[in-house]
Amino acid sequence: MKGKIATDIVVRRLKDMADADTCARMMAESEPWITLGRGYDEGLAILTDASRDVYLAQLDSSILGFVVVEMDGAFTGYIKSICVAPEHRGRGVGVLLMSYVENKIFEEKPNVFICVSSFNEGAKRFYIKLGYEIIGELKDFLVAGHSEILMRKTIAPLTEFMEK
């Protein structure tokens, strides 16, 4: 299956409540969302918020993961959440989702932002390998005793990007 994922995976938009239900369950049943206390209802609210773009990684009829992007607000081009089903982690699904949304964001904005929980060392290493830099720390932001680490990947300063 490892080779099949690399070539046959499809990235598409979330299209209906069945997609949202699958993704909300995936989020609620895995880390780091368990530690963050983000349950099914909160996940479903994030996934169905019309102000966000949600993209799914699908192989055949199975949803392997998803990514939620915010293109408005203080940090435009903000990846709100990325989740890969635990049984599909380490197989390139996260890299594919990140690459897909980075390309979409970089068409409109020069920066991609993401937060990673301080206890989620594996994810932090993953983002650093993808070229993200740590730019700040939000102490006790989501849960007491843990920080959210703000990271950024950039292709140009905002003023230079706007001139194009």
Q: Reading side by side through the largest sheet, how are the strands ordered?
A: 1-2-3-4-5-7-6
Overall number of domains: 1
Give Rg in angstroms: 16 Å
Q: Give the overall average pLDDT.
A: 92
H/E element string? HEHHHEEEHEHEEH
Apparent shape = globular
Quick one: how many beta strands?
7
Largest sheet: 7 strands, mixed
CATH topology: Aminopeptidase
Share of residues in helices = 25-40%
Distance between the termini: 42 Å
- How many H/I helices? 7
What proportion of the residues form beta strands (DSSP E)? 25-35%
CATH architectural group: 3-Layer(aba) Sandwich
Structural class: alpha+beta
Q: Which blocks of ≥5 consecutive residues have pLDDT under 50? A: none
Superfamily (CATH H level) name: Gcn5-related N-acetyltransferase (GNAT)
By CATH reckoning, the class would read: Alpha Beta
Please give the structural blueprint.
Blueprint lengths: L1 H7 L1 E4 L3 H12 L4 H4 L3 H9 L3 E8 L2 E9 L7 E7 L8 H16 L2 E7 L3 H9 L3 E7 L7 E8 L3 H6 L1
Parallel strand pairs: 4-5
Antiparallel strand pairs: 1-2, 2-3, 3-4, 5-7, 6-7
Helix pairs in contact: 2-4
